[in-house]
Amino acid sequence: MSQGLRLVMLADTHVPARARQLPTEVWDEVERADVVLHAGDWVTPLLLDELEARSARLVGVWGHSHIPWDTEHEGLRLLNPGSPTDRRREPYRTFLTCTVADGVLRDVTLHRL
């Protein structure tokens, strides 16, 4: 079995409108990741430029709710990392990490900030 790809999933960062910068814990995970998935909302392309500079690979996906979610329906895994900068009605700011090895999503972890 291969070690797999380390993924970081972010959403609803709103930098710099709601936060000046991403939390240090997020940047630490970004720098260790093989792939960073960002599900929007981002306010300025400068954050995407910085993510791209500090990550091995950046992929944008769609999101908006700020609500962490991990469920499976009829074999489809649905993940939402929440927001690392704006918790809205949630008790914590959050993001996700996981690995993909041999075509299987493993070690999905919700990080609370």
Automatic annotation (TrEMBL):
Lineage top rank: taxon: Bacteria
Record-stated family: Belongs to the metallophosphoesterase superfamily. YfcE family.
Lineage: Bacteria, Bacillati, Actinomycetota, Actinomycetes, Micrococcales
Annotated Calcineurin-like phosphoesterase domain residues: 6-63
Organism of origin: Ornithinimicrobium tianjinense
Stretches assigned to coiled coil: none
Protein name: Phosphoesterase
